[in-house]
Design goal:
Strand content: 15-25%
Low-confidence stretches: none
CATH architecture: 3-Layer(aba) Sandwich
Helix content: 40-55%
CATH superfamily: NAD(P)-binding Rossmann-like Domain
Number of domains: 1
CATH class: Alpha Beta
Order of helices and strands: EHEHEHEHEHEHHHE
Largest sheet: 7 strands, parallel
Radius of gyration: 18 Å
Oligomer: single chain
Strand order of the largest sheet: 3-2-1-4-5-6-7
Bound molecules: nicotinamide-adenine-dinucleotide
Length: 257
């Protein structure tokens, strides 16, 4: 199949649901072969997405599973050209009530996961000698803070530092690294936190949407799965390494750089 990613192999973590799945679908439309890497639902999602999708069950916090998963992709598809480090969760809690276990869990999924998948893919990209693109799923919370989200905001800011370092270390290998920073997108991760924020802030769910999530957008609109997938395609398909070490906020103007 011809397309902007024809001949490319991508690994998308957290691709059984939400944003990751939308990115996987967009990449498949553009001719890539895509590994659907997820801790749950990977095989089912890959089956639904067709023969160019490969389900890889992987907990991104587990070093052995990540290395084995990337090796599985390489043996099935012959290499890796694009990594989208996207797997993530959200825990809503005032900092004073947050357990150390929940803090560590959040940092592990978002930061250990990004490190482990980057390391495995970068090693493979170095061996292949055909460059590559590494994309991190940041957030408007990579740039801005909100109450009740201390570990999420911390981790998402951290991804910017990881990206810039990978951009510098990857340059000699022709590997670029960039971050996508979406505003609120209606995925299971967001649907779950609407009642949780309503409870913790003592307001209605409608007020959470209007006065918390979309308050600072220019038009009161949610960002869509398609919006984020389009930016992910842009980063994956960019024809040179001029575009590296950057972060793009796609949030209806919630955060302006
Ligand atoms: P989602 O819940 O729909 O999907 C997240 C996926 O990650 C799930 O399939 C889940 O199984 C997987 N996952 C969780 N822990 C994992 C682990 N340890 N190993 C492997 N996979 C794991 O959520 P989403 O909204 O699509 O979120 C995807 C990414 O986008 C996250 O990093 C999130 O922080 C980020 N993000 C989301 C929004 C939003 O508004 N939805 C905004 C900005 C950034």
């Amino acid at each position: 199949m011809s397309g902007k990613l024809s001949g490319k192999v991508a690994i998308v973590t957290g691709a059984a649901s939400g944003i990751g799945r939308a990115i996987a679908e967009r990449y498949l439309q553009e001719g890539a072969r895509v590994a659907i890497a997820d801790v749950r639902g990977a095989a089912e999602a890959a089956q639904a997405l067709g023969p160019s999708a490969l389900g890889v069950t992987m907990d991104v916090t587990d070093e052995r599973q990540v290395d084995a998963g990337v090796a599985q992709v390489v043996s099935s598809f012959g290499g890796v050209d694009v990594l989208v480090s996207n797997a993530g969760v959200q825990i809503i809690s005032p900092l004073v009530d947050l357990s150390l276990a929940d803090w560590k869990k959040m940092l592990a999924i978002h930061l250990d996961g990004a490190f482990l998948t980057t390391r495995a893919c970068l090693r493979q990209m170095a061996a292949q000698k055909r460059g590559g693109s590494i994309i991190y799923m940041g957030s408007a919370h990579s740039k801005e803070a909100s109450p009740l989200k201390a570990p999420y905001v911390t981790a998402k800011h951290g991804l910017i530092g990881l990206c810039k370092t990978v951009a510098k270390e990857g340059a000699a290998l022709g590997v670029r690294a960039n971050v996508i920073c979406p505003g609120f997108v209606r995925t299971p991760l967001v649907e779950k936190q609407i009642p949780e924020q309503a409870r913790d802030l003592g307001i209605s769910e409608a007020e959470v949407i209007k006065n918390v999530m979309l308050k600072n957008t220019v038009d009161g609109e949610f960002t869509t799965l398609q919006d984020v997938a389009e930016v992910a395609l842009f980063f994956a398909g960019f024809p040179s390494n001029a575009l590296t070490g950057q972060s793009v906020v796609v949030s209806h103007g919630w955060f302006m750089q």
